[in-house]
Design a protein that fits this description.
This protein is an alpha/beta fold and 234 residues long. The chain is built from 10 helices and 10 strands. Helix 3 packs parallel to helix 6 (137-149). The longest helix is centred in the C-terminal third of the chain and has 16 residues, at 167-182.
């Protein structure tokens, strides 16, 4: 489905991504784990077209993405839940969700998907007329996820969805990610909470200073001594 080959990204003289390759197959949850500054968010931005690679290839279902405008990448079935949520604070919950479907013309489909999002996130339904900026952090994260789903993506990129949330809400967010995947959406997950990310991932990659250093199933990496020492606390 999504294939990244020999990807390099530079910021001036600094090479943030140093020729990484990985893939995400249809129906999977794949996670990228790594410390701050490893290049996880840069990788996500390169895939969604927000930064231009200096070299390499990114394909979605065989179509090269590196020359495609970001809004057209959304039309091709790829949506992103950005780090920090980035909800439209002065718009209501419902308006934020409708904006997620901005490129769609199927009004009945949009209405049906809005109902599905409200079913997945009952709290958003309760707050549908509330300004997004007045929601709690967890509710804003749910809104950012729901907004991405309104684009009807085949694959969704999630960047640090548990950041800044209480342990109870972290558990809820990860259950929702699994539920979204079971309903047919492929997930590429960037997450500093390596333990939780590996617990739901079919496959995983470890990113360190712009290089992929380890890969395997989520269960394999959770048991790997190097991963346990570096990311799982022993």
């Amino acid at each position: 489905m999504l294939k990244v080959e020999n990807l390099k990204v530079q910021y001036g003289m600094i090479e943030a991504i140093k020729g990484i390759s990985f893939e995400v197959n249809d129906g999977e949850i794949v996670t990228l784990i790594g410390a701050n500054g490893a290049g996880k968010t840069t990788t996500m931005h390169a895939i969604s077209g927000l930064v231009k690679p200096s070299a390499g290839s990114i394909t979605l279902n065989g179509t090269e993405l590196t020359k495609v405008q970001p809004y057209k990448i959304v039309d091709m079935g790829l949506a992103q839940v950005p780090e920090g949520r980035r909800v439209f604070a002065q718009q209501t919950v419902e308006e934020n969700l409708i904006l997620g479907a901005y490129s769609r013309k199927d009004k009945e489909g949009i209405a049906s998907d809005l109902a599905d999002v409200f079913q997945t996130f009952p709290r958003l339904k309760e707050r549908r007329s509330q300004l997004a900026g007045t929601l709690s952090g967890g509710e804003q994260q749910m809104l950012a996820m729901g907004r991405a789903l309104m684009a009807k993506p085949s694959i969704v990129l999630m960047d640090e969805p548990s950041m800044g949330l209480s342990p109870l809400l972290v558990s809820e967010i990860f259950h929702i990610i699994e539920d979204i995947n079971k309903k047919g959406t492929t997930v590429l997950l960037v997450e500093q909470n390596a333990k939780r990310a590996l617990s739901i991932a079919h496959r995983a990659y470890v990113l360190e200073t712009g290089n992929i250093t380890l890969s395997g199933t989520g269960a394999e990496l959770a048991k790997d001594e190097r991963v346990r020492k570096a990311y799982l606390g022993g």
